[in-house]
């Protein structure tokens, strides 16, 4: 019943997104940029919440998987233009859609494979050790890209075309939410939650906790790779520094702020924390502000840090953590 309802919601959401995309050309470029950034951050936050929230692990390498997806999708669209010509008889819109869909899929699969390779050895660790290892792998991916000249190295890589439109970004966000919600409410989801609630008890009951952790990690990496492909074909230029440690911290902040294990909370936090830097940037231009406050407002990590401190002191479960999704029947 839950799956059927979410299918209807997904189809309705895709229809609304398709209708809204027809008016995207009338949106101011500045607000259009923010709108697409919100959609990409929703994909990242919801997918990371599968690992950090529902499975109870703590990953700090999400931007590394995003980088794999971004560079893989870019290589696909840059060096395989012949495939687009082969698809040309299908019509301009359909051929471009298939071509870009394949690029996103390849980027997501590449990131998922890297996530699997990283997850198998590292997810036997717990807590702080896991966070350090995933942080290390994320930085390794970034440094490797930085030193491979074929990928543009430190100078970055240009993207040939802008394929990421409003429909693609929000359609992928809707699919990510759909997959995560259905997965969490399935048998596998019960395995994720058992790992989070009491891993030792889960193992004593015969549950293969490593399998569930690796599955969650790989799936989260897959969606991070798709987000990377969307990001690359939206910004049209990517550099290794765009996928650094601070980016991973931003996504983790969204998950913590929304509430660990709350998909709706992750979505709302992604929206708020994407808009927040833009609001602070505008506020910092006000002439009546003291000079010492201006650089603090422009540096987004300072407000993020203060926000986390306040959240941990006042509501450690996050804005929506611990709030039931529906009222239980008597």
Summarize this structure briefly.
With 330 residues, the protein is mainly alpha-helical.
What does this structure look like?
By secondary structure, this protein is an all-alpha fold. The chain has one domain (2-21, 29-244). It has helices at 2-21, 29-54, 62-79, 81-87, 92-122, 127-146, 166-184, 187-197, 199-204, 209-235, 245-258, 263-283, 293-298, 301-314, and strands at 157-158, 237-238. The protein has a two-stranded antiparallel ribbon. Helix 2 runs antiparallel to helix 10. The longest helix has 31 residues, at 92-122. The protein is globular.
Structural class call reads mainly alpha
Strand order across the largest sheet: 1-2
Which geometry do the CA atoms define? globular
Radius of gyration: 20 Å
What is the total number of structural domains? 1
**Which regions are unreliable across 5 or more consecutive residues at pLDDT < 50?**
324-330
Q: Count the helices. How many?
A: 14
Helix content: over 70%
In total, the number of strands is 2
Largest sheet: 2 strands, antiparallel
Terminal CA distance reads: 19 Å
Q: State the order of secondary-structure elements, H for helix, E for strand.
A: HHHHHHEHHHHEHHHH
Q: Work out the strand percent.
A: under 5%
């Amino acid at each position: 019943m839950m799956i059927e309802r979410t299918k209807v919601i997904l189809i309705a959401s895709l229809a609304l997104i398709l209708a809204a995309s027809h008016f995207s050309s009338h949106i101011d470029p500045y607000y259009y940029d923010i709108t697409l950034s919100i959609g990409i951050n929703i994909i990242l936050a919801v997918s990371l919440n599968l690992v950090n929230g529902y499975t109870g692990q703590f990953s700090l390498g999400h931007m590394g998987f995003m980088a794999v997806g971004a560079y893989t999708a870019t290589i696909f669209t840059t060096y395989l233009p012949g495939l687009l010509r082969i698809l040309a008889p299908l019509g301009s819109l359909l051929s471009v859609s298939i071509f870009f869909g394949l690029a996103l899929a390849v980027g997501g699969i590449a990131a998922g494979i890297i996530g699997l390779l990283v997850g198998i050895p590292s997810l036997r660790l717990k807590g702080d050790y896991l966070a350090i290892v995933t942080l290390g792998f994320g930085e390794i991916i970034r440094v490797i890209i930085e030193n491979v000249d074929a990928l543009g190295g430190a100078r970055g890589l240009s993207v040939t075309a802008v394929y990421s439109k409003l429909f693609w970004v929000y359609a992928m966000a809707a699919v990510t939410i759909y997959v995560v919600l259905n997965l969490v409410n399935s048998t596998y989801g019960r395995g994720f939650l058992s790992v989070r609630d009491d891993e030792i008890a889960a193992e004593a009951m015969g549950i293969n906790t490593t399998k569930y952790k690796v599955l969650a990690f790989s799936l989260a990496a897959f969606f991070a790779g798709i987000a990377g492909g969307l990001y690359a074909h939206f910004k049209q230029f990517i550099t290794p520094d765009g996928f650094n440690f601070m980016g991973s911290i931003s996504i983790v902040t969204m998950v913590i702020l929304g509430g660990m294990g709350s998909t709706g909370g992750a979505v709302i936090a992604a929206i708020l924390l994407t808009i927040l830097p833009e609001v602070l940037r505008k506020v910092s231009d006000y002439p009546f502000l003291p000079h010492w406050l201006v650089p603090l407002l422009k540096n987004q990590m300072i407000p993020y840090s203060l926000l986390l401190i306040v959240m941990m002191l006042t509501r450690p479960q996050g804005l929506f953590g611990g709030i039931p999704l529906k009222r239980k029947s008597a």
